[in-house]
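Revision sheet: structure tokens.
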Amino acid sequence: METLREYVDSLFCKYKEDKQIQELKYEIFTNLEAKVKDLTENGLSYDKAIVMAKESITSIDYLIDGNKEIYINKFKLECLQITLLYSLIIWIVTIPISIVETGRLLNALLLVFSIVLGVNYIGASKEKNKEVLLVKKFFNIRSAYRIRRIAWVLWGGGFIASSIYVTMVRFGSNIWFSRSVKITGPYEFASIVINYCYPFLLIVVPLFINSIPQLLLKYEVGDLNENKK
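Predicted:
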């Protein structure tokens, strides 16, 4: 039965080994083993019984807790739409910071990025092939929620670290020597504020990731969800 064991291992190759996976692997292996035994007892050759047993289970994705089968291309299209929307918002927000050189560069890059996204979205939204739109794939909703939490933690930590860094670079010596902060004019003040604001613009990343679990549920395969579309 080593052939069956290797086959079961291949079914689970993309999943991290844990208690649930171990139990499922054992259950599937014993079921296949029993199927082969039953087939051979009914006169089928061992090799053919192995092939038939394998063909009876070709995927285990639907057995994994938290896995949702979704319409992957519909999901990708809306993800592209949300990315385009956030890109345009950030482009508009960064227009005022174009008074500094880095702000102008960032604003120009965002404009180019938005145009590229827009062209891709228009092309993807014109897809009329129903077979392409109905392609299905499994995603794990639990992993999506976990990644969402991690994204917010990383953004929050990065924002705090960046604020501390800007403060130390701009005002470190003033704080160390207890000197008063002097800002020579509105341009320098704007430059300081902009340096603090740069990391805040990255909030679109966790905001985008935050929407993924809802999109997975929206495009989950099923009669109820299909009727909504």
